[in-house]
Structure formats: structure tokens, C-alpha cells
């Protein structure tokens, strides 16, 4: 196990965490030395956030911690209207462009099962998607870019967005947009932990990199009755079984195979007694689809198929189809910026190809307003990796300085290209 206040070495020198990778370029104006001084503090901050996670919409203490860290760095953060997110402008040249960098800060409703001293102290809540890593990285970016701004060497403004509620609907990105988070922004960038890539590699892709993701809930009702006489009532358990087993396959047959539509029910409920036919039953899940056009048609298709499947059972159907988020579609020019930044920060070997994922990301809503791109940051360890959204997810913290270098270079490359 590792200490919550020192860098875990895992057999390696702690100094190797901050050494510039082979083929990379030094950060300007001695920022590499500043990063070396700040890494242990950023790791400690990440662990503090990890041990005190907060669910989507409830990130008040996390936001306060972020604001304190940025204020200590000489910056002027401001809280979102609800107090559970932070926006911080780093002011450089006043006539320069505005570039935004986003980090998400919420945790998931999972019980942390890792044997580490900084495991979650909140029962049933855990940072299992790497948002604690994203947050620590962006705090580090603020420290370094703030130093550049103090020296008069930042050729524009960089807006740091620490966004709440990425994991739920309605999306936290929409709160940020409503609060003016994209005002004057010409490009926006974000990264997301990827345990399938090793530390030092960044997954880049032009065009769609995630899927659209919606929530589907179906509620069935009937008069209820005795299991001895199902012919006198509506057998909702049978109806629920048909819903779960038949609807996903039938929906996928209504769209092109290459649209990648995937309807999966993650929760189903019916009844409380072995000899009572219930009067209520429900199932909920997600619909994910890679194709934007198919996403537009999905609510109508799902509604029709559910009605067709349930009609013969006699059950009454109430369908709640909650629009979630479109696919994240990376702008080609923004990917060029990220590619140049990755080469500068991590060397030419740092660029990796990455496929379109079936996961959803509400960063997509920002891209409805301004061009930008999402990169996948390698956090994988040697040996078997644990996927995102598992309570045992444990990213390699050496990705923190790598992520800071990447996003600092991204901001500088974007400002130079837009200026």
C-alpha cells in the first residue's frame, strides 16, 4: 500500500514521475521545474478527493476544495450558481482568444473495494471513473498556466471548467453552458482516463469518439391477482420477461446494423410474493447508438416496439424516454491541436489510435456550441486492467503529471493556432 501523502514509487524513483518523456519538448519558462515541485501535492489532492467522493449534483465540498487550491495558486475561481462546480479564467493577453479546458468532478454510487489508504470514506460512493484524476490534473494545469500569466507569457485566456453531474441526467454540462461557461470560447478540450492505454499514451480520433446515450424506463401496470388464476388478470411478470428479452433485439432490427444501437436493461422489478401476481412492474436501462441520425429516430422506434411487444399481454404501458447526450464528435482541427500537444508533451510515441466507444459523455453538449475534442489519457497499469465504472478501478497516478503536461501544451497550442 502507499501513503496518502507521498508519491508511491512502485519500485521506481519518484523523480521518474516528472521526467520529460523521450522525444518530448520542455514546457516553456521553467514550468517543468514547477510541475516537479507540485506533483506530490497534486497526488495528495487526488487522494483527498478520492477518499471524500460526492455524487452527481452534490459536489459542494469538492468544488470548495478546487476553489481553495486555485486561490492559493493566485487565481480567481468562481463557483457555479448551485455551488457544486467551478469556473476559473486565467487571464493572459487581453486581445487573445479564449480556450476552455474541462474536468468533471462527480463520483458514482458504488462501494470502494480497493485496499488502499485513500479508499472512499463515504459508504456507497466511489470515484470509479477517474474524475478525481481529471480534477487533480486540471488543478495542476491552473497552477502552471497561472505562472505563465503572471510572467505575461500567456497569449490569451484559458478557462478551466470543473463540471458537476457528468454521470447523470440532466447533464451538468448544460448547467455550465447556462451559466455562461462557453462565453467567448473558440475551442474546448477535455481528457478522460482510459485504463486500456498505458501511462504516456493518448488516444485520439477525428469524428465520433463516444456514443449517444439515453435512459429508458418502462412501467407496466395491471389489476394483479393470484398465481393460480393468471387467466383472470394480467401476468405482469410474464409481460416484463417479454419486454426484457424481446424488445432489445427487435429495436436493433429497425435500424442499420452499422449504427451500433444497443439497448440494455440494467434494472428490473416485479412483485414481492411467490403466489401473488403483482399490479406493477418496471424495467430501466440505457440506449446507446453510434450514429447521430439513428439517435434522432430512437425514441419513436423504442416506443413502437415496446407497445407492439406488450400489447398482447394486456398490460398498460408507461414509457419514459429521457434524452441524454449525443455522441462526442471531435473536430479535425482540434484533434490536430491535441496531436501537436501530445507530441510536445509526451513525444511522438504518445499518440495512439482509439476506437469509438459505446460509452456516453456529456462533453458532447459543449461541442454543439463550439468546436473541440476529447482525448483518452492512458492510466493503465502493467498486468490486467480494471475497466471504468468498477469499484476496483485504480488508475496509475503517474498519469497526473502526464495529463498536466498534455493539457498545458494543448492550451498553448490552441491559443497559438487561434491567435
Ordered list of secondary-structure elements with their pairings:
Blueprint: H1 31-51, H2 60-72, E1 78-79, E2 86-91, E3 98-104, H3 131-150, E4 157-163, H4 172-178, E5 185-198, E6 202-204, E7 207-208, E8 212-221, E9 225-226, H5 236-252, E10 262-270, E11 276-277, E12 280-289, H6 292-310, E13 316-325, E14 329-330, H7 332-346, E15 351-353, H8 363-366, E16 372-380, H9 399-418
Helix pairs in contact: 1-3, 1-9, 3-9, 5-6, 7-9
What percent of residues adopt helix (DSSP H or I)?
25-40%
Largest beta sheet: what is the strand line-up?
A: 1-2-4-3-5-16-6-15
Q: Sketch the major β-sheet.
A: 8 strands, mixed
Helix-strand pattern, N to C?
HHEEEHEHEEEEEHEEEHEEHEHEH
Radius of gyration: 24 Å
How many helices? The count is: 9
Portion in beta strands: 15-25%
Indicate the structural class: alpha/beta
How far apart are the termini?
A: 47 Å
Mean pLDDT: 94
Number of strands: 16
The 3D shape can be described as: elongated
Low-confidence stretches: 1-15
